[in-house]
Design goal:
With 82 residues, the protein is of the alpha+beta class. It contains three helices and seven strands. A four-stranded antiparallel sheet has the order 2-3-1-5, covered by helices on one side. A three-stranded antiparallel sheet has the order 4-7-6.
Length: 82
């Protein structure tokens, strides 16, 4: 099953999506006003590589399907299977 992480499509979140898009296992799609990051394996995004400030970082996730968040701190956002 493909798992999904939803990110609101606003300019502030573009760097987060761009870093995720560079990950080999991640595909990006859109559903309504959201980017959908899809993968069969967990995703790990390094916050520093996105260049976003903490306020944007901690508000970028709009929803999950098939995963739970294992880490979401000043260093990384990492998902894992439920």
């Amino acid at each position: 099953m493909t798992n999904r992480l939803f990110v609101l499509d606003v300019p502030e979140n573009i760097p987060v999506v761009a870093v995720a898009e560079a990950l080999p296992q991640v595909t990006i799609d859109r559903v309504g006003p959201y980017f959908v990051l899809e993968s069969d394996t967990p995703i790990s995004i390094d916050r520093r590589s996105t260049g976003v400030r903490h306020a944007v970082w901690y508000s970028c996730v709009a929803g999950l399907a098939g995963w739970r968040i294992a880490q979401w701190d000043k260093d990384a956002l990492r998902t894992e299977d439920r």
